[in-house]
UniProtKB/TrEMBL annotation:
<dbReference type="Pfam" id="PF00294">
    <property type="entry name" value="PfkB"/>
</dbReference>
<protein>
    <submittedName>
        <fullName>D-beta-D-heptose 7-phosphate kinase</fullName>
    </submittedName>
</protein>
<dbReference type="GO" id="GO:0005829">
    <property type="term" value="C:cytosol"/>
</dbReference>
<dbReference type="GO" id="GO:0033785">
    <property type="term" value="F:heptose 7-phosphate kinase activity"/>
</dbReference>
<dbReference type="GO" id="GO:0016773">
    <property type="term" value="F:phosphotransferase activity, alcohol group as acceptor"/>
</dbReference>
<feature type="domain" description="Carbohydrate kinase PfkB">
    <location>
        <begin position="12"/>
        <end position="302"/>
    </location>
</feature>
<dbReference type="InterPro" id="IPR002173">
    <property type="entry name" value="Carboh/pur_kinase_PfkB_CS"/>
</dbReference>
<dbReference type="InterPro" id="IPR011611">
    <property type="entry name" value="PfkB_dom"/>
</dbReference>
<dbReference type="GO" id="GO:0033786">
    <property type="term" value="F:heptose-1-phosphate adenylyltransferase activity"/>
</dbReference>
<dbReference type="InterPro" id="IPR029056">
    <property type="entry name" value="Ribokinase-like"/>
</dbReference>
<dbReference type="InterPro" id="IPR011913">
    <property type="entry name" value="RfaE_dom_I"/>
</dbReference>
<keyword id="KW-0418">Kinase</keyword>
<keyword id="KW-0808">Transferase</keyword>
Amino acid sequence: MDSFPLEIIKQKKILVIGDLMLDRYWFGEVDRISPEAPVPVVRVARREDRLGGAANVARNIVAMGAKASLLGIVGPDEAGEQIQYLADEAGIDPLLIQDQSLHTTLKMRVLGRQQQLLRIDFEYPPQSSALHMLDEKAKALIAQHDVLVLSDYAKGALTHVEAMIAHAVECNVPVLVDPKGDDYARYRHASLVTPNRSEMQQAVGHWDSEEKLCQLAQSLRKKYALEALLITRSEQGMTLFNEQGRFHEDARAQEVFDVSGAGDTVLATLAVTRAAGLDWPQAIYWANKAGSIVVGKLGTSIVSAEELL
């Protein structure tokens, strides 16, 4: 396989639009059960905030050497400020729209001895006025970038995703989508859509053989005029379907510690390698390698160009 094209990647600029969230981790020790209820008492020793959702995709893009602009919606709250701060710190260009009525999406995880004990989610849909501002800003920005990445976590930022894809196609900018739900008509004309195994089953139903999967995948791809469809399949690796056929990468031998954000890393790797001019088989080789590294890390994490090399 050709070497990772870092020097070309450094010249590329990628726009990430999608659902922003803050991943908050509370790490502690558990040495007793609460006298109030049969639950463990966690004595918090350390706290850490990380960029999540679309922001984690942008963070991975920057870690691999490319430039990333991040467009999304936050609320006028501490979590929104923290996303802005962490994005600045990571070297991302944050283009955040503030929705005055919104609470920023926050996922709080409590861990005892590196084991996740509890996750609490705070999430609310954005207002139509904020979505209009996001759509207008997207239209102005897409042509200034080499690749558009759409990170859909079904929190509402990509309500008008069809118009974003249509504009990118007009501007001849490739579009890579991490989808949600079973309505793939929303992603018509995208360059690539990257469902995981369960998301693919949601969209096309179950399959009992590789031949059946190939038939279902190619049918879905052609129906919505997608250049390529990549299914991430956990321990079965990842399989790409395009006009040329089927390309598969086996999962690399790796102890899986935490799959949080692994799809973000895969998407980011595909974005930078395609921006650098690699073909689909080469791009999924590097994406598979990045995915195998990130699942060995705790929580929402990144993979750097140095680690890939």
